[in-house]
Amino acid sequence: EETDDVRGAFLTTRPKKNDKPVEKTQKPNRKRPRPASTPTATPTATPKSPVKVVDHIPPKTRMPKIGIGMTLFMRDQNGLSVRVDPSREFYKGERVRLLLETNTDGYLYVFNTTDNGPPLMIYPDADLDEGGNYIQAHVPVEIPSSVAAEERLKWFRFDAQAGVERLYFVFTREPLTGIPLEDQLISFCRQRTENCPIKPATSLWDQITKEMTPVKGAKAAQFGATETANEHQATTRGIGLSKEDPEPSLVMMTASSGTNILVTTLDLAHK
């Protein structure tokens, strides 16, 4: 019953099909919305001072609980994207891709560790979405992108080394301090290729992991179905998903509406 409440709270903000805006014909813009004149500071990947993560909002401000919907797709023998249960075991050569959807506007970060090793930031990516990570409510994002220039860049491919890949999903109402974005991320990675993907500073990573408070989750039994044309168009054209579109396979949501950050994980085991 609780999982139904979580799923319902997440999906209630999806528009009905007839309420959807006119479809866009260009790729989604993941860059931050900025006022006409806003001074920009140059962030670094290793901040000198501890990072502050705001964990509350003014009491008079009513904000929705933060939620992330996740669907894991695997490439089948015909090259199609098929929904797959993340809890299954994966094997050498199998390829997967994530479809992520949020219920409010904000900034998405994805980090990866292998067998509890050091974290690497895999999104935002200097080669994806122009280094941007601004996500609009119910406008899905693919990681990696199905429209990447090369086939090898369209999927995560499991190698021969057995282990557990843990993905950390960090969704915030405001950008994290200490992580370059957009043009700054692209420039940073061009100048310091050995530091990309970025390894977050210890102070930042400590702050992120401290935010891993329990979240409410919900799981849908729809594995085996292929990605729909609407899902693909929504991702590549920046169109919001509607109530009639398939639900995410997993939904994770903060327990309180008074938080500005959601941190949750997904483990992928390969043999």
Structure report:
This protein has 271 residues and is of the alpha+beta class. 14% of the residues lie in helices and 27% in strands. The model is unreliable at 45-52 and 54-60 (pLDDT under 50).
What characteristics describe this protein?
271 residues, alpha+beta, 7-stranded antiparallel beta sheet, 6-stranded mixed beta sheet
**Which band does the percent of strand residues land in?**
25-35%
SS element count, helices: 4
Number of strands: 13
Q: What structural category characterises the helix and strand content?
A: alpha+beta
- Radius of gyration over C-alpha positions, nearest whole angstrom: 18 Å
Q: Could you describe the largest sheet, including whether it forms a barrel?
A: 7 strands, antiparallel
Q: What order do the SSEs take from the amino end to the carboxyl end, as H and E?
A: HEEEEEEEEEEHHEHEE
Outline the low-pLDDT stretches: 45-52, 54-60
Distance between the termini: 34 Å
The pLDDT mean sits at 84
What overall form do the CA principal axes indicate?
Answer: globular
- Helical fraction equals 10-25%
Secondary structure layout plus pairing:
Blueprint (H helix, E strand, L loop, with lengths): L1 H10 L55 E9 L5 E3 L5 E2 L4 E8 L3 E9 L5 E4 L10 E2 L5 E3 L12 E2 L5 E10 L9 H10 L10 H9 L4 E5 L9 H9 L12 E5 L6 E10 L1
Parallel strand pairs: 3-13
Antiparallel strand pairs: 1-2, 1-4, 1-12, 4-8, 4-9, 5-6, 5-7, 5-10, 10-13, 11-12
